[in-house]
């Protein structure tokens, strides 16, 4: 039961976006244009280390407790060694999943961040490959309708 779709590797970009050098309150408008001073690269902001970084699309609700929701795009690094506590993209017996990696008494566990789902203990005959560590998630806030 896959809950992640790999979209492809990221490539380095020279595009730079306007960066507003001001904290924007969520309550009322700010004259942010008065503070536009710099250009910011998404490569730098998201610490993209191309070609060791790729994008995956999430389906399902098993990671909502980690702030990862259906339709989110994950930035995944293959350059970071996975450690217990990291959110990872893993291939378990042919299914691609996003889960939190855990370890108890030497046994690895893929944990959901939703109490509706049980942890998946990795058994001796399981085939587990960690495809990368999730570093960021991106969410579209536009309403469709």
UniProtKB/TrEMBL annotation:
Residues 22-134 form the Peptidase S24/S26A/S26B/S26C domain. Keywords: Autocatalytic cleavage, DNA damage, DNA repair, Hydrolase, SOS response. This is DNA polymerase V. Pfam families: Peptidase_S24. One of its GO terms (biological process) is SOS response. InterPro entries: LexA-like (IPR039418), LexA/Signal_pep-like_sf (IPR036286), LexA_repressor (IPR050077), Peptidase_S24_LexA (IPR006197), Peptidase_S24_S26A/B/C (IPR015927). It comes from Halopseudomonas yangmingensis. GO terms for molecular function: DNA binding; hydrolase activity. Belongs to the peptidase S24 family.
